[in-house]
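pinned: reference chain
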Amino acid sequence: MKIHFHGKKKLTGLLLTALLTMAVLGGCGSDGTGESSGDNSSMEPVYGGSVVVGIQQDIDSLDPHKATAAGTKEILFNIFEGLVKPDENGNLINAVASDYTISEDGLVYTFTLRDNVKFHNGNVVTCEDVKYSLERVSGLLDGTPLISTLKTIQAVDILDEKTVQVTVESANTELIYSFVAAIIPVGSGEDEAADPIGTGPFSYVSYTPQVGIVLKKNPDYWQAGLPYLDEVNFKIVNSPDSAVLELQGGTIDIYAYLTDSQAQELQESFNVAASPSNVVQALFLNNAEAPLDDVRVRQAICYALDKDMVNEFVGGGNGTVISSAMLPTLKDNYVDLNDVYGTTANVEKAKELLADAGYGNGLDLEIAIPSNYEFHMQTGEVVVEQLKEAGINATIKAVEWSTWLDEIYNGRQYQATISGITCDTTPGYLLNRFQTDSKKNFINFASTEYDELYLSAQATLDVQEKIEAYAKLQRILCEEAGSAFLQVPANMTAINKKLSGYKFYPVYVQDMSTVFWTE
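pinned: its structure tokens
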């Protein structure tokens, strides 16, 4: 399938060469505090008004325990809260819980509920609600765990009207991050998908498939003074061209995950700010699908790619080139493995490996890409041209987001795909998905050594041992070429110049609680 892009950058041999000298995007920056720079941050907050936030995909579920897509979770962050939640610096802060303790052996978590936290239906959150929510996500309720990391929960006991005790099967120093799981009213599980009720700064108003979701201010929100806005409309914009037109026409106020070309087009009329994202972009390879079931073919693909060029062309050089699944911002755990395949193309090595695998005359490769993500589509343009040099005839298959989620991510019916996977602030979060039997292992990576090492890493309470194990896991995934990892893109966001308070997070959220109009 041949893809034509109208009004966007085209790739030619000369352009590919010229891209190496592209200047880094001007006018983008972050002040390092999590709040976007140049955003009228010195202005006094104004209460009231509504904002339209452009989003790139539809909602996969309004049930916070069943939502899969990161693009859904970034919206639900405004509706739901867990016992704890992340802040803009990546630290966990107390939310529905006002305090918690962990026993010395790591097996007992004791949470104290915050006073007078209310659900959007007006009811005060009780220990019964917390017990129900945790039993639902862990599988204690019906035998089906909805959040895999919490299936370790063995019991949830109410100690008094303000205290809940959670007993787990085995100690895990990273488990506390999983208690961001949404607290919902007792017995409401099957109703959440149609009428979501949480404790967040905004409550649910309406959802229209393929159109968007509308939220309104929660006047009873426990955090004093927040939110400022009366209403937030998350509007689905499937076409990247439409997104730019709507921004310029004033029908969208905020739009994230811009490409370099979009950012440059908008930087005069909008505040365009960049911040490190928590997205790992890759040319994901289905390890169970021929010819990608041969490690030599996967390695050849890794050698054939010029990651520096991908970063320059699509992200203006603002991204961070990577070679495995770990965020560079998780500095204690990240290992730079870019020397394994290099960050520029080694075409001869790629051809040598293909010939050794029996593909001396080249091979065909279909790359499925969600068409609503211009960043991934432009990446595909570059990747296709680079693979040709090594004798790999790659073609792009543009698919709707719902199709990508159903057939590729969940169904694993594909050869290769370009997309992004997101991480929370848990260092092991991305490594977890590549265990052989993980439901999230959509690339079908299979390594007994990896599986055993991951389990031992989770079992240790020694932080240094865990760090060393994570380093080895990253190297296994890289050397076995589980996929061709490309970059952690910068999150470039266009923000209406009359808005302030927008914060960048190291996790995939759109926190609208601190956003306000300055006039």
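why pinned: The radius of gyration is 23 Å. Confidence is low (pLDDT under 50) at residues 1-39.
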